[in-house]
Amino acid sequence: MERRNTMQKELTYNTVMSYPGHPSADDVYRLISSEHSTISKATVYRNLSLLSEEGKIGRVESFANGEVHYDHRTEHHYHGHCIRCGKVVDISVPYDKIDILGAEAMEDGFSIISHELIFEGICKECRDKEKEKWN
Ligand SMILES: [Zn+2]
Ligand SMILES: [Zn+2]
Questions:
Q1: Could you write out the three-class secondary structure of the chain?
Q2: Whole-model pTM over 0.85
Q3: CATH number of the domain to which 123 belongs
């Protein structure tokens, strides 16, 4: 049993690591179940939570709709959330550029450890699609 749990957790981890973007829990489950039909949705979801708590994978939650996505990158970086297709993309703004704001929060007696920022917008693919429509 223990062994099987470890294998399923590894499988979940490997699926996220080889995914090119930011899969939702459902994306991960669909990929895994296409090859391993015996693994349950609850198991995949539980393993994703465990892996992100352990810091092995990243977790991105959009505040616009509460959708959760997972990430093979675990170092701090910013995300964009597409309001058209719901996709999450990496935004290449340097992380420490915005830490400057921390100085002001410190004056309020708050010590900052990390921060998260999600840009709401429209991804490149959706913008291209919209352009095509008007041509
Ligand atoms: Zn989009
Ligand atoms: Zn990311």
A1: CHHHHHHHHHHHHHHHHHCCCCCEHHHHHHHHHHHCCCCCHHHHHHHHHHHHHCCCCEEEECCCCCCEEEECCCCCCEEEEECCCCCEEEECCCHHHHHHHHHHHHHCCCCCCCCCCEEEECCHHHHHHHHHHHC
A2: no
A3: 3.30.1490.190
The domain in which residue 84 lies consists of: 75-135
Distance 106 CA to ligand 2 centre (A): 27
Give the model confidence (pLDDT) of 100-122 as tens digits.
566 666 777 877 777 888 999 99
94 C-alpha to ligand 1 centroid (Å)? 23
> Distance, CA 89 to ligand 2 centroid (Å)?
6
pLDDT tens digits, 33-57: 999 989 999 999 999 999 999 999 9
- Asked whether residue 69 falls in the same domain as residue 91, the answer is no
